[in-house]
Amino acid sequence: MCGRYTLKTPAKTLAEKFGLDEVPDEVQARYNVAPTQDVATVISADGTRKLEMLRWGLIPSWADDPEIGNRMINARAEGVAEKPSFRSAFRSRRCLILADGFYEWRRENGGKQPFYIHMKDDSPFAFAGLWERWGDGGPEIRSCTIITTDANDLLAPIHNRMPVILDPESYDEWLDPDVRETGRLMPLLAPYGGDDLEAYPVSRRVNSPANDEPECVVPVG
Questions:
Q1: Residue 162: which domain range?
Q2: Is the overall model pTM greater than 0.85, yes or no?
Q3: Are 11 and 27 in contact (CB under 8 A)?
Q4: Could you say which of 67, 78, 95, 104 is catalytic?
Q5: What does the alpha-carbon distance between residue 110 and residue 112 come to, in Å, rounded to a whole number?
């Protein structure tokens, strides 16, 4: 799964990297992004890319209670096209969830050791995401989820799952609501195959979402 990540890249760099006209002021450096928080997400709006802050934890449009989103922070790639919670969004409401690193935990010595995974050059990337609208007579809530897949060779010794990191060349296809063929979309959800990722252990301070600071990504012995 993916339960925490970072986005500390400057707004100007994000705009250039993801083809955005502007980046809202709400996008600040984050070292420990956690579920239920608002996260930087790129969606397609009238044929252009737009950055919106969406709640992390997808709330299906048919849900009676928005709290269901607390359990929908991830969507497994293997069932995303068929599962009722995600299939509608998979067809027409796909998004990029912006990040520059993420955390996974490895069980060891009776506990869990957090690891930080990021590009060796610290460049930003995009998780494959889905987004949804929910409203029950009150203000509309827009929410999102991160799609996960099998771990690649780097992640396998740490955890058996990892978030889908999209190839930049597939951004347009993933965002295009007119692309609905499962045969075109599912191949995009493969484990990341590049050798430009690295992973190292970090402090257990990251276990608490209250700790959102540069120390979260500092390597520990």
A1: 5-101+122-195
A2: yes
A3: yes
A4: 104
A5: 7
Q: What span, in angstroms and rounded, lies between the C-alpha atoms of 20 and 35?
A: 25
Strands 74-76 and 141-150: parallel
pLDDT in tens, 7-16: 999 999 999 9
Contacts of 46 (CB under 8 A, 6+ apart): none
Q: In the chain, which residue ranges form alpha helices assigned H by DSSP?
A: 11-18, 87-92, 171-175, 182-185
pLDDT of residue 36: 97
Compute CA 68 distance to the chain's CA centroid, rounded to the nearest angstrom. Answer: 18
29 occurs within a structural domain: yes
Catalytic residue among 2, 95, 144, 216: 2
CATH of the domain at 31: 3.90.1680.10
Residue with tokens 């929910």: 134
Structure confidence by residue, pLDDT tens digits, 29-45: 999 999 999 999 999 98
What gap in Å lies between CA 119 and CA 194, rounded to an integer? 10
Active site residue 144: no
